Every structure is written in C-alpha cells, then in structure tokens.
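U., I forgot to send this yesterday:
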Amino acid sequence: MTTLNYTLVSHTVFRLLGIPGLEDQHVWISIPFFISYATAMLGNSLLIFIIFTRPSLHGPMYLFLCMLAGADIVLSTSTVPQALAIFWFHAGEISLDCCITQLFFIHSTFISESGILLVMAFDRYIAICYPLRYTTILTNSLVGKIGVIIFLRSYGTIFPIIFLLKRLTFCKNNIIPHTFCEHIGLAKYACNNIRVNIWYGFSVLMSTVVLDVVLIFVSYVLILRAIFRMPSQDARNKALNTCGSHVCIIILFYGPGIFTTLTQRFGRHIPPHIHILLANVCILAPPMLNPIIYGIKTKQIQEQVVHVLLTIHK
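Result:
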C-alpha cells in the first residue's frame, strides 16, 4: 500500500487571473467595476451618514437599512479593489492567508446581507399586520440585538471554513481563474479529500441563505394576505408601496445568485468567463443599486439627501 506524501509541495501563494479569455479587455472591464465601486461607496456612506445624523430616521426600518449599507461596503471592499489591481497592474498574486481572509469576509458578509433582508421582511410584516404595536414590538434595543445575532450567525457559520482550508495541502495548482477567492474554488486545488468542505459549505448554504429565502417568502405570503384583506384601495396601495423597495432589493440580491447557480449547473457549454462575470455581477450590483433604489423609493431619504446636498453646495 502506497502512502501519498503531501509534504513535498504545498502552495502558499496563489495567482488570481481575473477573467480568463478576456485578458486583453481587462482595462475596459475595469471601468464598470470602478464606477460600481465608487457608486457603492458614495451611496452607502451617504445613506449611513444620513440615517445616523437624522433622529427622524432612527426607526427600525432605517436602522436595518443602515446595517445593509454597512454590509454592502464590506462586500464591495472585499472584492473590487483586488479585481482592479488585477485589471490595472496585473497584481494577481495573493497569499494563502490573504485568500482565506478574503473569502471569509465575502461569504460571511453575503450571509449577513441575507439575514438583514430576512429581518427587513419581518419589519414589513409587523408594520403592515400590527401597525399599532409596531414601535412597541420593534424597539431600538431589539433591533440592536437582532443586528448582533445576524453578524454572529454569519461569522460563526463561516469561521470553521478557515480551519477546514488550513488543514489542506495545496499541491495541484496555484492558478485561480477568478477575480476573487471563494471556498470551494480554493479547496479544489488541494490534494486531500475535500468532502468535508463540500458538505459543510452545502449545510451552511441550506441553513442560512436558503432558509432565509423560505422565511422571506412566508413573510410576504402573510403580508399579501393582510394587504388584500384591507377595506380600502388606498390603504392597499400604500401598504404595497412600503414593500416596493424591499422587494426590489430581494430580487436584486437573490436573482443573480440563483441565475448563476442555474448556469453553473445546466450551462455546461457556457464559456468560463461568462460564469466569472456573472459571479462578479452578484457582488457588484446589490451594493451599487441598493442605496439608489431606497433613495428613489423612500420619500424621507430623498428629502434628507436633497437637504445634505444643498447644505454642501452652500
């Protein structure tokens, strides 16, 4: 019986290629990346500033929105600067520890955003189904505790992945055809059996993101049932309007991810660079568009943004 020796080669430095097959277009591809990052940073920072500095926006819905904006900033910053470094300076080298750190923040922030979208659905459910008890149920203290639980859940579920990856010996390859590191994308370069990584990743996905989607769906079934039982058309329209921004963000967050998963599963003839571009859309689009959607759809935020901009102009 032969014993494989994994001690001969174990890569500690990897090279991210960006978008293979489109290397000659990297400079042009970098333009939408840069614009989306700048928009995400500006929009989400402005949103956080407005919510923190305006007492009238210290309600539960806006505090959850503030959490979402913070998560958007972390998600963008975890990925886009690295991608731009590859596109502009061919700086794709990344150490194993940095790669694991990057994927930790990407995966944990993604789960955080999913959790925030779930509690925002719960917020809309309380506001529409129990309007008179809204402020007594969703106190600022409870909102703070919910926020802590969301982030503990996300970091707690992803933290074991660090050790699952650190135990592996990476002797197959050190070239990663992507703009960022992700769990299974890195683990597949190990010589060891990665079945534990695969099953743990699957269980995390099912117990967080998939569960969140199911609970959001149930929340909106209850919300719609309550709305269509309202006596007046005006009341129904107003209630539906309060959910509009949240529904747009849900579609924007989960839609590209579901589409990407389906193309990876069934689109075997789709070129690899299309899969990588779709994966980047999942990271780029929500942070860029979330503050714009809430800015357009929410009158209170609109008014405060105009006030801030006029103050700066003066």
